[in-house]
Amino acid sequence: MRELKEHYDIIVVGGGPAGLAAAVQAYDQGVKDVLIVERKDKLGGILNQCIHTGFGVQIFGEDLSGPEYADHYVQMAAERKIPVLCGATVLSINQDQSIVISGSGCGVKRITCKALVLSMGCRERSRGAVNIPGSRPSGIFTAGLAQRYINLEGYKMGKDVVILGSGDIGLIMARRLTLEGIHVRMVCELEPFTNGLTRNLVQCLEDFDIPLRLSHTVTMIHGKERLTGVTISRVDENKNPIPGTEELVPCDTLLLSVGLIPENELTLRAGIKIDPVTGGPLVNEHMQTSLPWVFACGNVVHVHDLVDYVTMESCRAATAAVTYIQGELPRFREEIPTEGADAVRYVVPQVITAGDDVEGDLTLYFRVKKPVTNAIIEVSCGDWVFYRSKKLKMIPGEMEQVLIKAELRDTFDAIYQENQTKGMLTVPDVFQLDKQRKGIVDTKLTVSVRSEDDR
After folding, report:
1. In this predicted structure, what is the pLDDT of residue 439?
2. Residue 435 has pLDDT above 80, yes or no
3. Each residue of 228-245: b (16+ CB within 10 Å) or e?
4. Please, are residues 330 and 353 in contact by the beta-carbon 8 Å criterion?
5. Cα-atom radius of gyration of the chain, to the nearest Å?
6. Complete edge-to-edge strand list for the sheet that includes strand 253-256
7. 108, 98, 113: which is closest to 10 by C-alpha?
8. Of 11, 8, 17, nearest to 122 (Cα)?
């Protein structure tokens, strides 16, 4: 890239699908002074090792592989001559609207900006996060690492594999290993249901006759130098192993697909508020964090199941960042917290804005805690239910969304006025905003899901 400047209008942290989409969108919205900072030596993020198809149907109208999807945006960034700094790590986000970066090509440098977009993605949970007892032999990998070894490095890590966890990457790797001639003995899942997309369950396990053990987990690892086998056990409704159900499964490789964690150590050090459920920053519908000049998008906010959704969210964050630095982001009078009820695990955004200057549709994203059949979805504010729909089946592995039309958002301002009249206005510690300019009403926007069969 050309010489690094000391100031940019917008800096994007992370050069994966979220960061690339955000940078291109910001450029197309009129802010040409954009910098992408990526800690790896190549743009594209995790997509570079996802050689299977299933990407881009909604964004490009094509069924693309991960590298193909990433290359579309890498080319877009190159065509716009957006500067990219690879091999550099952001060390800190400072209150003076600056970041400190470190890299072999730039040394340690402080750069200021008008707006910052966080798009660092997520990382895998490791063996230490799930506390599996036993020895520490070789042959234990996270599913993403195994994917990198096979797809990018050309290594086969074993001959007989057990996979713990039924997340999408675990299901996809079960198929990938089978295609490479590796015997996948089984996929074990702690929950009584799978945690991946239905299409991956069908295409990756059922089509290849790979056994799936629900309500099972690995309770012991065997082997000294190399893994020789694992003990699996059935678990009860409290996720505790049931004595007497132990089964020794000989294998030389164990893959862990036990969840993803948004990369937010940098966010935490900056003092940005974090949602304890998602592990990502609290955001409003503009993807604006509790630090007004910092926006976030993609898996750093909450884990997505489709990269197309990541791209859409990133475009929204970049558009808001451009509006912010142009001084045109509305100064909202109030912010209403969102919450999940019944079977809903979390809702993003965590707050929505209310006031006379609020415009546009509102999309709420959420996941359920468990599978729900004949589901009734409701969105309510106080005692008023203004959205209701039905869905035949909902599962935790698929992110759901609800579109609230612009005309319904006028209700939020009416609720604020009513609560203010009744003296119900409170300011809980959600965003720690300037309380002289903003407050948060005690009325919450609630997304609930329940089964029609429970009536």
Report:
1. 46
2. no
3. bbbbbbbbeeeeebeeee
4. yes
5. 23
6. 140-142, 253-256, 160-164, 183-189, 212-214
7. 113
8. 17
d(CA 19, CA 13): 7
Q: Which domains does the chain have, with CATH numbers?
A: 1-123+260-329 (3.50.50.60), 126-258 (3.50.50.60), 331-455 (2.60.40)
- CA dist 375 and 397 (Å) reads 15
Q: Provide the CB-side half-sphere exposure for 85 (13 A, CA).
A: 25
AA identity, residue 13: V
- 435 DSSP 8-state letter: T
Phi, psi values for residue 101, rounded to 5°: -120, 155
How many angstroms separate the Cα of 273 from the Cα of each of 32, 289, 347, 411? 29, 7, 15, 27
Q: What is the pLDDT of residue 274?
A: 96
Q: Residue 146: which H helix or E strand, with range?
A: helix 143-148
| The amino acid at 12 | V
Q: Give 58-91 pLDDT, tens digit per residue.
A: 999 999 999 999 999 999 999 999 999 999 999 9
- For 237-258, what is each residue's pLDDT tens digit? 999 999 999 999 999 999 999 9
User: Could you tell me the two tokens for 265?
Assistant: 């150590």
